[in-house]
Structures are given as C-alpha cells and as structure tokens.
Specification:
It is built from 21 helices and 37 strands. By secondary structure, the chain is of the alpha+beta class.
Length: 849
C-alpha cells in the first residue's frame, strides 16, 4: 500500500475544467480514505449493480469480476442488493455521489455523457458514470490504475498483473477532451460470420476508453439517396448532375427543388427508422463531377451548394427532430466554409487530406471553428493503398506528429476526431494506443506513456524494443534500407534473448516477428522487376498465405489484403482462384495457424537475409558558407544556372555574398491538373530560421520573379510549398545556392535532373557512402575530373564508392540522377548545379588547403 500511495502522491493532480462554482470536472488525487478490495487471500467486497442496470453496466461488472479474479486468484460476487459496503458499479442516478454532481452532469450536446468518478470512502468503492458509457470507463480506468493494460486487440497484448492485495486509494473524476473518438479501418472485419475480429476490436476500444458521447455520421450520402430512390432518378434523369453534357451520378443537380425535397425526406426517413441516431449525413458522393448546369452554377461554389443543401435539410430536421444534427465533411472541392452561416444543427468534420481550393489544411483548421461550434476533424492514420502495411507506415507511426495534431484539434474546440486507420498493429499499434490516450486527455505525458508501453509490454526487453520502434518511427525519417531492416531484426533477436524467461513477452515478440516476415516478403517483391514473374508470383502467394495464417494477431490488415491484394494478384498472375471473389478454396487459405517453432525458424532465416552494413555516419553543422570551388574542377565545365522542378516542398540554402538581395524565380502550378489547389507559399529566412519575407503565388503555371532584401550577407534559406501542384525554381548562374537534402525525404523531381548534380566529398574521405533509393535509371557517380567511378544498380541500400587518391576535398557529380531518396552518410547533404554554387558546412571547407 505504501508503494502505491507514494506513486500516486507523485502523480499530477489536474483540474482541466470546472463548473461555475469552481468544482473540478477533472481531477486525480490520492485519497485519505483507502478501500480494501482484496487482502490476505480473501475478497473483501462484492460488486454491486442496480436492479435496473443496463446491458453495458452488466457487461462492465462481469469484466471487472473476471479481471479482479485473474489478478487475485479468488472469486468476487456480483449482486443487485445494495445492503452494506461494496464495489458499486452504476450511474449517478443509481448510486448518487452528490459531492460530484457537477463532475457527473451531462450538458448540452451530450457533453459529459462519458464522465465518470472513481471514489473510495474507506468502506466501499464507487465506480460511477454520468451515463452507462461513463460506467464502463470508470471500471476500466480503475483496472488500468491497478496495472492492467490492453495494448493491441490480440489477447497476447493484454497485461493483467497478479496482485497480493488490491486497494483503492485514489479519487478520479474525468471526462474526455474530445467527445467522439474513433480509430477505425476500412474494408470492415474479415470474419463477419464468426465475429471474433470485431469482438476483439470492440474489447480493445472498451478497455482503452475509446468511445463516443455522440455518434458522428458524415460519410458520403448522395449516392445512397440516389440508390434508395432509383426509380425516381431513372424517371427524372435531370435530377442527376450535368457533367460534360450528360446527366450522370453519383452527384445531384442540387438546383432542382424536387431533389432538395428528396434529400430532406431521406434524412427524416433515416432518423425515424433509427431513433438512436444523433446525426444523419448529407455529405456529397465521393469524388468530383458536380453539376455544371447554369442553375447550379448560379448557386456558387461547390461549398455553397453542398452546405446550402445541408442547411435546408437541417432546418427540416430541427423542426421534426429537435436535437438531431446533419453531418458534413469539409472535403475535396467543398473543404472551404461557405459564405453564409450554418444552421446550429449542422455538424462539420474537416478532413486532413484531399484539400483543394484557396486554403491549406492548416488554414482551414483555423477557419472552420470560426464558422461553427460543431466542428470535428477527420484524420488519415493509415490507408492500405498508401502504405500497404509496410514500414515505416503512415501518420500513426509518427508519434510526434500525431501528438501535435491532436493537441491542436483540442485547442480549436474539436468535439470529434475520426481516424481512418488499418487493422495493422505491427506497424501502427503503438501509435493507435498513444493517439487514443491523447484524444481523451491531450495533456498526458507522451514520454511517460511510451515508457510504460515498453516496460510493461516487454519487461526485460524494454530497451531493445524502444530502439526497434524508434528506428522506424516516421518522425525519425528512417532510411528504409536492407541495413535498417537488419538492425530491426537484430533488435528483436536481442529482445528475445533478454526475455527468454518471459513467455508473455515472447508471445508478443512472436507477433512482431511474424509481421517482420511480411515486411521481408514485401521487400523482396517490391525490389523484383516485373520481368521476374515466376519469383514475383511465388513471393505473392507466400505473403498472402503468411498473412492469412497470422490474421488473428492483427499485425497486418488482412481484410484489406483479402479484398484488394488477392484480386490484384489474381489479375496479375492470371490465377482466378486467388481472388476473394472465387467461391471455392483459395491456395493461400491454409487452416494451420502459425506455431512458435515455425515463427522462430522463419525469423532466423530473415535475420540472416538482412545483414547490417558497415556505415560511418558523419554529422555536419548548419554553419553554411560559400567558397568558389571552380579551381577544384576542370575549367572546361561552364557555370550553370539552377533549374529544378519538383512536386512537394523543398528547401534551398542560398548565400548573399556581399549583402545583395536574394533573387530567384518560382514557376507555380507546373502540373496543370492541380492548379485548383491553394496558392504556393514561399519563405526566405535568415540563417537562424527567422522568416525574412513570405509570400503566396497563384497556381497559374507562370514564372514569378522574387527579390528579397537582406539585412546582412551570408546564409539564408528558401522554402517553397507547392501544395502538391508542382513547381520549379531557377536562379542566375552566379548565385551560390544548393538543394538542402532532408533525411528520409521523398524527392519527387518532375523528370530526371537534366543538369549534372554536384556534391562535395570532404578531405580525408577514403570511401564515399550514401543511401540510394531510385527509379528506373541507374545514376552514375563521377569524380572531380569527370571519370566515371560507379554506376548504382541497386535500390534501398547504402552505396560505397572508393575515393581515388587526390579526389577528396573536391566536388563530384551525378549524371542520370533521378532519386526517390538520397542521403550522404559521410558527406554534406547539399546538391548544386555547379561547383561554383555549392553551399557547404564551414568545417568541411576549413579543412581544405
């Protein structure tokens, strides 16, 4: 008991909000009263629920009983008579706690529906919720404080510690910062008949307090309205959008009064059929192809049309069903707020992707809360067709970024956060767990949460597993190479050795080893040319079979693989029985689950397949200077003006030699199809990163000269964000300017670099080492005299090039240069159009004679 009380005394006592009288709505403190639940081998209290307890409370009490028994080894009773002390599990109406009246009050818009209180009074323990949702949260927060953890949905990731005594010596009153919190995945559950996958997911959500005080419905709806009124739309094709002279779905002609009436009637019908709904969606169908008729165009932009219809439907809903809402996405061609006010019962979720129009997502984040209090956000944590469950994964594997975003959403007043994800806990599980915690309370110490995860899930292997996860965290900008994979496999090997006497930890490591075998198979597949059809076919079948057999570990998103990869593979290899559409047996659907022996045997093979390289990393400062290197290169090479074209943001280091202005030109909107995106943004900063000048450029495909006066000579930075529309930069041939590579950055140059690309090899370098991931071209490495020293024929590896005598301390160059990613391990990461324009770290040049 003393150890527990000391720990809790050191815990943060917080009050994030209070009522008008100052009563805390959120608090966490040590209690003066200690209630004993289990001691000396005996259960001291029964679990008590009200006679009128609902299904959720019954389920929570049953799980509380099961977990207390698992921890203590003794049985706890569950009864409905309230005589005497006990563990009271129920709502505020069933077991009143008047001193926590405000903390358990449900306000407008369901605010506080998930609030709960954990309160020991020395004799009894109260696990009380404002509603049944809060009751469940009280139970599982209490179990969490006893050390229980449910990191991932598979049972192996459950941690239920044995206890010699179970005490309640803390008081908690809590409620979520974001009222509606969802981490969900597309393609649904893969075993709908059996239901095990869904049950495991719902248990994870329940145990980790993921829930919704109200349920948002903002998904695409117009296509459903058409489908459910197909006869009417067939009879009246003019109700469909006019696109390029033809009437077609899935969008409406919203200027038609009959269509607007149909939409309102559809909304009312759904609310009548499902009285439990808090909201009905009026979101457009996915994609564009909105109506081009004259009457629709009179209505204004797509935002004006879509939200205008939502307003009209919302007024009808408010009259018939007060308190119900109409849901919308701020998405794609209607991501911007309309010019008119929104009805009080219109709910908007702004999407963190697929943004078009005048504003960036960061700007839209600021605009929408000014337009409505009913604001939420829609995140993309993982999309199968984007990351394919491969390392380093999607946004969910960037702990720093998801922390920043969730905290910002809360600051902006978000009441919902819907996170499109995948059932792929091998790469994203740690991120899903942390994100869920932050959605409840964004002020939590993320480092402490991670420490707890590593320590509790992996015990003596915690340090090795921290290293494993951090290697592949997107925020660390990992260079996905055979070298990095080799290091990751060795982390798992070391973890297995350290946890040799911990079967619970070894079971979790087995899941990760199974996931890493998928990574190995996909790596091999993705690095095989299309011409190697036989090998590709064999690897694909191995991958599908492996992931099917390990599907209940949830390391991979099997439902996505089943519905997407099997069909794609069937088409690619002309094997119709591979597709999920095939009614009979599939060659990948082995009934044999993976065993520990097989998992370890395959892991040892993978461990040997990937061998670490001997890589020497050299760090260079950002103290950048310019020195004319033309004397270190043949005189027949003429200076060249910089001319680069990219899609995605890039950064340049530029030198003002004598305090002259920084001059460059930007070509905006190089990709014509994307000229409807937000303006490009440029910034010129001083050497310390402080912005000197900023500006916007219309995506018009034109050249825009820019001149910025400086306050002093020396280093400056040019940053440009093209919003994905493509851009080009050019300077005069005498401007010292270099592309500043960013570790792990994806380079989307529009075509290969037509110019030779120069870089600098420091004096004393015996072997140049750089990471290379490229496309179809094999880049050529030339020494300072133009001699071809190497041709790179691999991808996803570090390349080593011997430095001939006298070739160090000079500028080298690439030809046939079309990288996806490049990073120098022991040379400055700056590229220029000529030796004369290289901008380099001061210490690299100071070593020259």
């Amino acid at each position: 008991m003393n150890a527990t009380r000391i720990f809790l005394a050191a815990a943060l006592v917080f009050c994030s909000s209070a009522d008008a009288h100052g009563e805390p709505l959120r608090l966490d403190r040590v209690s003066d009263d200690v209630t004993v639940l289990f001691a000396n081998g005996q259960a001291k209290l029964s679990i008590i629920i009200a006679a009128d307890a609902g299904e959720t409370t019954h389920a929570a009490a049953a799980e509380l009983r099961a977990y207390l028994q698992q921890m203590s080894g003794v049985a706890f009773d569950v009864r409905t008579d309230a005589g005497g002390p006990g563990i009271f599990v129920g709502t505020q109406q069933q077991f009143s706690l008047p001193q926590f009246k405000s903390a358990l009050t449900i306000g407008n818009g369901h605010e506080g529906a998930e609030a709960f209180v954990i309160y020991p009074d020395g004799e009894s323990l109260y696990l009380v919720g404002a509603s049944e949702k809060g009751v469940s949260h009280a139970v599982f927060r209490f179990l969490q404080r006893l050390g229980c953890r449910w990191y991932f949905p598979a049972r192996e990731w459950e941690v239920i510690p044995p206890r010699e005594e179970i005490l309640a010596d803390f008081v908690i009153a809590d409620r979520p910062a974001i009222a509606a919190r969802r981490i969900w995945w597309g393609y649904a559950f893969f075993d709908r008949a059996e239901g095990r996958c869904q049950k495991d997911y719902e248990a994870w959500a329940r145990h980790n307090l993921m829930g919704e005080s109200f349920r948002t419905y903002t998904g695409h709806a117009w296509q459903a309205i058409i489908a459910e009124n197909q006869a009417i739309f067939d009879k009246h094709p003019e109700y469909l959008a006019l696109v390029d002279g033809q009437r077609r779905g899935p969008q409406f002609c919203v200027s038609q009064p009959a269509v607007r009436k149909l939409a309102a009637e559809w909304a009312l019908k759904r609310l009548k059929m499902k009285p439990e709904l808090d909201m009905v969606s009026m979101e457009t169908a996915d994609g564009s192809f909105h109506c081009q008729c004259a009457e629709c165009e009179k209505l204004g932009s797509i935002s004006e049309r879509a939200f205008g219809l939502a307003n009209e439907v919302a007024r009808v809903v408010a009259e018939k069903y007060p308190g119900r809402m109409v849901g919308m996405l701020a998405y794609n061609d209607h991501c911007e707020p309309p010019s008119f006010p929104l009805e009080p019962n219109v709910y908007v979720q702004s999407t963190a992707g697929f943004v078009r129009g005048r504003y960036t997502f960061d700007e839209l984040m600021e605009l929408w809360p000014k337009k409505t209090r009913n604001i939420g956000f829609y995140e993309y944590f993982s999309v199968w067709l984007w990351d394919f469950d491969q390392l380093p994964g999607g946004r969910a594997n960037d702990i720093e970024e998801i922390t920043r975003r969730i905290r910002r959403y809360v600051q902006l007043g978000a009441t919902s956060l819907s996170c499109e994800s995948g059932n792929n806990w091998g790469v994203h599980g740690r991120g899903y767990y942390i994100a869920n915690k932050l959605m409840w309370n964004p002020d939590q110490d993320v480092d402490a949460l991670l420490d707890d995860f590593y320590r509790t899930a992996f015990g003596p292997a915690a340090t090795a597993m921290r290293r494993f996860y951090e290697r592949f965290d997107v925020g660390s900008r990992p260079l996905m190479s055979e070298h990095l994979l080799a290091r990751g496999f060795r982390d798992l090997q070391l973890a297995s050795e350290l946890a040799a006497n911990r079967p619970d930890v070894r079971a979790r490591l087995d899941h990760l080893k199974q996931y890493m075998h998928y990574v190995r198979l996909r790596w091999e597949l993705d690095h095989l040319p299309k011409s190697e059809e036989k090998q590709r076919k064999a690897l694909t079948l191995q991958g599908l079979t492996w992931c099917y057999r390990s599907r209940y570990s949830y390391m991979n998103h099997w439902a996505a693989m089943w519905l997407s990869w099997t069909r794609q593979a069937a088409d690619e290899f002309a094997e119709p029985t591979w597709s999920f559409k095939h009614d009979g047996d599939h060659p990948w659907s082995s009934k044999e689950p993976l065993t520990k022996t097989e998992t370890e045997r395959v892991f040892q093979t993978d461990l040997q397949r990937f061998q670490p390289q001997d890589i020497t990393e050299t760090e260079f400062s950002q103290q950048l200077v310019w020195d004319d290197l033309k004397n270190l290169y043949p005189k027949q090479v003429r200076p060249q003006a910089l001319l680069h074209r990219f899609q995605r943001p890039m950064r340049y280091a530029v030198i003002s030699k004598d305090g002259e202005p920084i001059r460059f030109a930007i070509t905006s909107g190089v990709i014509q199809h994307y000229r409807d995106r937000a303006d490009g943004r440029w910034t010129v900063s001083e050497s310390d990163g402080n912005p000197l000048a900023t500006g916007k450029i219309t995506q018009d495909g034109e050249i825009h000269p820019i001149e910025v006066k400086v306050t002093r000579a020396g280093l400056h930075w040019i940053d440009y964000n093209d919003q994905g529309a493509g851009w080009g930069i050019q300077t005069a041939e005498d401007v010292p300017i270099s592309l500043a590579l960013q570790r792990g950055q994806r380079i989307l140059h529009l075509g290969q670099f037509r110019q030779p690309i120069f870089f600098f090899v420091p004096r004393g370098t015996k072997r140049l080492q750089f990471f290379w991931e490229g496309g179809n071209l094999n880049p050529q490495v030339h020494g300072p005299d133009g001699t071809l020293l190497a041709e790179v024929k691999t991808s996803g590896k570090y390349v080593s090039v011997d430095v001939p005598g006298g070739a160090d301390g000079k500028a080298w160059f690439f030809t046939r240069f079309a990288p996806k990613r490049i990073w120098f391990a022991n040379a400055p990461n700056f590229l220029a159009a000529s030796p004369e324009t290289l901008v380099l770290p001061q210490e690299a040049l100071s070593k020259l004679e």
